[in-house]
Amino acid sequence: SSLNSTSWKDNAEAEADKLKETLGIDTDKKTDSTSSSDKTSSTSTSNKTATTASNASGFLRGYQTALESLESSSQKLQMTEKNNVFSKLDEVMNKAANGLATDEDVKKAQDEVVSAVQDFVKDYNYAVDYLKQNVEHGSGVSNQLEALQRGIPNEKTLAAVGMSVDKNGRLQVDEDKLREAMEKDPEEVKWLIGGQ
């Protein structure tokens, strides 16, 4: 199976909407995310801070922000999205095959893929941490966490692109193994991560 971020994002958004409905939160209202009633406590995680929201609306705003970040980072990897990193890599590799791009150009395009994967992993892990920090907001939060984690491919698929899931359910990426996989079979990496 491939790392299909679109399906788990859609599932997560549907579950978030159900949770909002259960909690009686009007999803059409926009609220100020700096409300003084939304006190939080923080736990530092990789480059971001997962927070525990003091109320349901604070939780939902935080979760929406986490999902938006995750969606943004996943779009860079999706072959169906314009300007995804794999299309750029394909373009540079085709130019290199015809003598129109250098090895340095290919390395830069590969660096963009690695960076996009690392951003996705960071945002995914933040969403997982955020949900774990906020399970006291109801069973819907646990359902969201389970849905998010179910969307991750099996160990064999992840290992093929230098990724794994640690004992805490957080994604890990081994940059050297990812680069090795791109060198060995860039089409497979593109298919497994980009969903094509």
DSSP summary, beta strand count: 4
Percent in strands: 5-15%
Strand arrangement, major sheet = 1-2
* Rg calculated over all Cα atoms: 19 Å
**Low-pLDDT segments, ≥5 res:** 29-46
Oligomer: single chain
The chain-level structural class is mainly alpha
Order of helices and strands: HEEHHHHHEEHH
Query: What is the general shape?
Result: elongated
Secondary structure tally, helices: 8
Rounded mean pLDDT is 83
* Biggest beta sheet attributes: 2 strands, antiparallel
Q: End-to-end span in angstroms?
A: 11 Å
Percentage of helical residues?
A: 55-70%
Question: What this model shows, in words?
Answer:
- Mean pLDDT is 83; it is low at 29-46.
- By secondary structure, this protein is mainly alpha-helical.
- The chain is built from eight helices and four strands, in the order αββαααααββαα.
- The protein starts with a helix and ends with a helix.
- Helices cover 61% and strands 9% of the residues.
- The strands form two sheets. It has a two-stranded antiparallel sheet. A two-stranded antiparallel sheet has the order 3-4.
- The radius of gyration is 19 Å and the shape is elongated.
- α1 (5-23) packs antiparallel against α2 and α4 packs antiparallel against α5 (139-150).
